[in-house]
What we know:
Two copies of one chain form a homodimer.
Chain A: E1 5-8, H1 14-24, E2 30-34, H2 35-41, H3 44-49, E3 55-61, H4 65-77, E4 82-86, H5 91-101, E5 105-109, H6 125-135, E6 139-141, H7 147-156, E7 161-164, H8 174-180, E8 184-187, H9 189-192, H10 197-211
Parallel strand pairs in A: 1-2, 1-8, 2-3, 3-4, 4-5, 5-6, 6-7, 7-8
Helix pairs in contact in A: 4-5, 7-8
Amino acid sequence: MESKIILALDLTDYQKSIYISKIISGEVYAIKIGYPLVLSHGIRIVKELSRYSKIICDFKLADIPNTNRIIAKLAKENGAMGIISHAFPGSDSLKAVIDEFKPGDIYAVVEMSHEGSLEYIQKHSMEMARMAIDLGVDGFIVPGTRPERIKLYREISGRIKLLAPGIGTQGGDPVEALRAGADYLIIGRSIYESDNPLLTVKKLNERINENL
Amino acid sequence: MESKIILALDLTDYQKSIYISKIISGEVYAIKIGYPLVLSHGIRIVKELSRYSKIICDFKLADIPNTNRIIAKLAKENGAMGIISHAFPGSDSLKAVIDEFKPGDIYAVVEMSHEGSLEYIQKHSMEMARMAIDLGVDGFIVPGTRPERIKLYREISGRIKLLAPGIGTQGGDPVEALRAGADYLIIGRSIYESDNPLLTVKKLNERINENL
């Protein structure tokens, strides 16, 4: 059975990133990397890590259409399988990412896990989710800590992939998030900071398979 | 008189970026660089360009507080003088950038120049501007194409620096934007794509000085 886990590789250390990717690649669906790692070592690290696993670039794109397009192009050229874009800067900005990055997977942020998300973003979550579906995104980033919100996004669309961060260290439970409708769990620190990352991810996969 | 111009170096080519920065540095207030350049060559290019000019990192930060903090730290460690952060992910995310990047300059995006900005961002512009002032940002990014909006931000706060992109190729007029209250004009293509970038920026400086 394909793993439901996406490893959030929130590191800046080059050697450790390569090492963790190598040993864990067979046990996860994909690896998600962000600006801290890519800024430290340049976008070419996406190409290197792609040798071990499918890579999702968590760039939370939030610029004007033309700049979003250039960033999406760089991710694509370097072999990224997926890209994460904000929906908040509007439909033209999101459309630029989709046009550039297809046939890769585009995941839209329609809600975030931190408190500040409630101030502005959350007021438009459902509206942004519908806009993003109409434009043809492949999935959403949804809060793994709030299963009731995951259910809501599941109801809006059956075909959309739901990726849930916030599992593990941040408090979300893997089985609960999956039962609420999440397709994949984004897990970082509780894997790569454990004494035995490979064993940790294997046990997580087992626990998930037994409980679904 | 100090130049009112910030050069938007929206290039990905390494040699050309260095060349333009070298010849133009004496004629601009600062140089603004973004993800296309930094992703292509790694964050260390900030350090290199800092030899010629003050550098503003246009990273439009839009992540959870902890990730914003890591990105701001990377910009600071590499010598950036200023950083541009979104306000829409909320006060905790913006505060993380401020806490990490001080005493450098933090500029908040409270409105953008593209159409999509009207869908969600613009509905909260004034609210976000007040929040950002309370937190202690140094300036805002305001639309150079809409002088009436610049006046509005000027009225909210006398001390805040207003940086206006959209001048030149995108249609904004430098003198009009400054008269409306902008402190600096962000100009890119009409300088670095001209036949003689140094002459172009000198003429712009002259025109500004004569008309203010």
